[in-house]
Amino acid sequence: xxxxxxxxxxxxxxxxxxxxxxxxxxxxxxxxxxxxxxxxxxxxxxxxxxxxxxxxxxxxxxxxxxxxxxxxxxxxxxxxxxxxxxxxxxxxxxxxxxxxxxxxxxxxxxxxxxxxxxxxxxxxxxxxxxxxxxxxxxxxxxxxxxxxxxxxxxxxxxxxxxxxxxxxxxxxxxxxxxxxxxxxxxxxxxxxxxxxxxxxxxxxxxxxxxxxxxxxxxxxxxxxx
Length: 225
Ligand code: 5RP
Fold this sequence. Notes:
Elements: H1 4-17, E1 25-28, H2 34-46, E2 52-55, H3 58-66, E3 82-85, E4 89-91, E5 96-97, H4 104-112, E6 117-122, E7 126-127, E8 135-139, H5 144-153, E9 157-160, E10 162-163, E11 166-167, E12 175-180, H6 187-195, E13 200-203, E14 205-206, E15 212-216, E16 222-224
Parallel strand pairs: 1-2, 1-3, 3-6, 4-7, 6-15
Antiparallel strand pairs: 4-5, 5-14, 8-12, 8-13, 9-12, 10-11, 15-16
Ribulose-5-phosphate binds next to helix 4.
Subunit structure: Homodimer.
Pfam families: Rib_5-P_isom_A (PF06026)
GO biological process, one term: pentose-phosphate shunt, non-oxidative branch
């Protein structure tokens, strides 16, 4: 018996996988919702669906290899047909906060090069305004203390992400500073301001990048917006 949130995540992930067509290059997201999409894609591949995929993290690449989903790279192809990825928050106009799992940089690269970004999320991630969830900002380790102080001057409470006693290191060898803004009324302005700070590599703000959101509900139903 699955708990209701897992039910919702699974429903969203599996529904999004139904948008994949033969021959597509597919972006594989990261996190516990993307997990269900990848599982479903693995089952479809097992049944003969012919696709190739690019994973947004080492964890998702490992899962794809386990499920025998053929992986490709940007050396082979620079355009994906569809990208299916999770979210920490989705606003009513489909702006998204990502990066809770620390994969935001590769997630944004894959999303940017995809014809279609489908965000999958349980119903509780759908919010009127972004910002309750801390915004992940990937930074270069060199000078991170100074980068963090600059982030604070933009009005957030910055916190260096840790994993147990250690500093969390991304797949790209960088750090993450989680920035609690409270409310993000103008995500594009915040994203631009963050990108102006040397040392900031990428932010978890995905402004007007999502084409669709598939919301999963605790009763196992879904809604596409
Ligand atoms: C990882 C992400 C995830 O998609 C996001 O954190 C949502 O994760 P989950 O589906 O586990 O709630 O952006 O960097």
